[in-house]
Write a structure and sequence with these properties.
Blueprint: E1 6-10, H1 16-29, E2 38-47, E3 55-64, E4 67-73, H2 84-106, E5 117-125, E6 130-135, E7 140-144, E8 161-169, E9 172-180
Parallel strand pairs: 1-2
Antiparallel strand pairs: 2-3, 3-4, 5-6, 5-8, 6-7, 8-9
Helix pairs in contact: 1-2
InterPro entries: CSP_DNA-bd, NA-bd_OB-fold, RHF-like, RHF/RaiA
Protein name: HPF/RaiA family ribosome-associated protein
Pfam families: CSD, Ribosomal_S30AE
């Protein structure tokens, strides 16, 4: 990495063990792409539960030439991220897959898909006319209001299952058509 790793703790005391795990996983990313310019990781404790485990939100942003890759893991209704180390593992596994995809794209070794991809809506910004779809392998794909087929962004819900066609845009993968299913 060109710039030092940045780790931020929110609503949680600094932990040397958590920091060491994040540093270990971030260093391994250099194996998948040698031009990582920076990496920022936020470790946040979402809720304080006295009788149940705490819930963790982990977000990591890495910058490579032409692109910023983002992976985020938040606790869901099944409490999958009551263990901060599981959340860290999943975020860095997602970043690794994104870096591998990015490296294949740079080398022009991109897989072709037989049909539309499937994913779920994870972020919507109706006031700004766009949102994000997470694919089954953890990649984030941008979509614009105009790519929605037979639906409107104002009625779209987070968690909605969609199928979509994808192309590489100027800022990364983007959906050209998005169908609810």
């Amino acid at each position: 990495m060109k710039l030092p790793l940045q780790i931020t703790f929110r609503n949680i005391d600094h932990s040397d063990a958590i920091e060491a795990k994040v540093r270990e996983r971030a260093e391994k990313l250099d194996r998948f792409h040698r031009y990582i310019m920076s990496c920022r990781v936020t470790v946040e404790e979402s809720h304080k539960h006295h009788h149940q485990g705490n819930h963790y939100h982990i977000r990591a942003d890495i910058k490579v030439p032409d692109r910023e890759l983002v992976a985020s893991r938040e606790p869901d209704e099944h409490h999958a991220y009551e263990d901060v180390y599981v959340a860290i593992r999943d975020v860095f596994d997602s970043l690794r897959r994104q870096l591998e995809d990015y490296a294949r794209l740079q080398q022009r070794k991109v897989k072709t898909h037989d049909g539309p991809a499937h994913g779920r809506v994870v972020e919507i910004h109706p006031q700004r006319d766009f949102g994000w779809i997470e694919t089954g392998d953890g990649r984030l794909v941008y979509f614009h209001r105009n790519s929605l087929v037979e639906s409107d962004i104002s009625t779209l819900a987070i968690g909605a299952n969609v199928r979509f066609d994808e192309e590489m845009g100027e800022e990364g993968p983007q959906a050209t058509t998005v169908h609810l299913h």
